Amino acid sequence: MSAGLQQPVLPRRGYSFPPGPRHGLLWFALHRFRPADPITLFQQLAREYGDVVHHQLGREHILFLSNPELIREVLVNQNDNFEKERTVRRSELLLGKGMITAEGAAHRRQRQAAAPAFHRQHIGAYAEAMVQNARRARDRWEDGAVMDVSLHMMEMGLAIVAQTLFGTVLGEEARQLAAAINTIMGMYNYMIVMPAAEVLVNLPLPKVGTFKRARGDLYATVYRMIEARRQGSGENLLAMLLEAFPDPQDTPYLRDQVITIFLAGYETIANALSWTWYLLSQNPQAEEKFHAEIDLVLDGRLPSVDDLPRLRYTEMILAESMRLYPPAWAMGRRALHDFALGPYWLPARTTVLMSQYVMHRDPRYYPDPLRFDPERFTPEAKAMRPKLAYSPFGAGPRQCIGESFAWMEGVLALATIGQKWRLRLVPGHKVEPQPLITLRPRYGLRMQVECRAGK
Q1: Are 168 and 187 in contact (CB under 8 A)?
Q2: For range 54-70, the mean pLDDT
Q3: pTM for this structure?
Q4: If you write DSSP's letter for every residue of 26-63 in order, what string do you get?
Q5: Which of 131, 157, 303, 360 has CB atoms 3.0–4.6 Å from 266's, for a disulfide?
């Protein structure tokens, strides 16, 4: 048990539960704040009931955690007693049986097959492709143009993942693939909450048809990549996966692996970059310091992997952006057996929900939490906080395998684009987070491109 927590008092009979709303969650939401979005619900539950909130739905028990030590208890110390909860497992409808949805031995086998591609010696080799794709993206922009920066970051992220991890140059296909993935992601909440989704997904419903066509487009691209790698050569993630799963009968399984890594590898960092450009546009002092750093470090040349240690403020900007708008905004687990958590004793099959969005905005760890302040991520400031007060990539054995990849891509892309451009939010454009699998801007981010003087 983590230090500083009260040791559990195990009851002689029955279970002990934390406090929580006496009525249903829908009643609670309607009577407290009305909007039906999960982020607001999580925040309100934490405000009213504290770090551990209990709700019973029929025979199901649900916990909401907002304490970094208790979150560590679930994700790290007692990890073997937890599996992904229902909504994540239902994501198989969207992602197949890839690394995000797999459990136990299947997950370990998949992670072991992919791990070498994310080793330090390979990560550094990806830097050149990251920078060149960011350069091509920035060179297509025109001074004064208005665009949805989130779409441009998605297309750039797709191109980077395709080239670095799968040895494929997408070109204009990146735009078509981004559109297909956007359609699939837009179906997430519909597929998760729809009763008997596993059955209804096979019925001729309009939304299901749209989803299936988009998924078919995605499958076609992935199958082409797999076949091209079977006929070609080179060392990358796809080659390693083919070596781990060589049987042609494994192709659908391999397809799901590729799709999962594709989505995780571009969706998270593309969203992080999109939110970063928005936040920089709203915080001119941080933006000025950002530009000063990249001008000093790079002196007009493109960045390289060797520049990363000197782009410290750029990294702090990205970290603060992912604090306010964490791409992975929530996590869920389901207990396999009875378990202790703090002073409580809880039954098997309890669902535990944790939100990075809520934790990252907790004033106990981030004073004035809505203020954008990259200085929160100096080494000294980070040392003052519990580790899991900040967890944009999760924690424990299921922590994102591509975390180092994402940090490097984010910093290099920011430096490359920020050399030439600054972005300004279009007046009146509504900015609101949309909690799907990742935290997207609900209405995109319409921004005007401004060329930096002399760049």
Answers
A1: no
A2: 91
A3: 0.88
A4: HHHHHHHT----HHHHHHHHHHHH-SEEEEEETTEEEE
A5: 157
Residue 75, C-beta contacts closer than 8 angstroms, at least 6 positions apart:
82, 331, 333, 354, 388, 394, 395, 396, 398
Burial class (CB in 10 A: 0-12, 13-18, 19+), 387: middle
84: enclosing H helix or E strand: strand 82-84
Beta strands at 446-451 and 421-425: parallel, antiparallel or unpaired: antiparallel
pLDDT at residue 33, as a whole number: 47
Greater pLDDT, 345 or 217: 345
84 forms beta bridges with 333
Q: Which CATH number fits domain 105-328+401-455: 3.40.50.2300, 3.30.70.270, 1.10.630.10, 3.30.710.10?
A: 1.10.630.10
3-class DSSP state of 226: helix
Q: How confident is the model at residue 150 (pLDDT cuts 50, 70, 90)?
A: very high
Question: DSSP of 390-442, one letter per residue?
Answer: --TT--GGGS-TTHHHHHHHHHHHHHHHHHHEEEEEPTT----EEESSSEEET
**Cα–Cα distance measured from residue 126 to residue 261, given in angstroms and rounded to the nearest whole number:** 16
The rounded distance, in Å, linking the Cα atoms of 158 and 265 is 8
Residue type, 324: L
Given the structure tokens 């609900």, which residue do they identify? 442
- Token pair of 35 as six digits: 């909007």
φ, ψ dihedrals at 352, nearest 5°: -115, 120
Q: What is the pLDDT of residues 261-287, one digit of tens each?
A: 877 778 899 999 999 999 999 999 999
The encoded tokens of residue 335 equal 């207990």
- pLDDT per residue as tens digits for the range 25-46: 655 554 454 445 788 888 988 9
Rounded distance between C-alpha atoms, residue 311 and residue 313, angstroms: 6
Is a pLDDT exceeding 70 seen at residue 93?
Answer: no
d(CA 255, CA 329): 26
The owner of tokens 């007060």 is: 389
**CA distances from residue 131 to 195, 219, 420 in whole angstroms, order as listed:** 44, 28, 13
> How do the domains of the chain map onto residue ranges?
1-96+332-391, 105-328+401-455
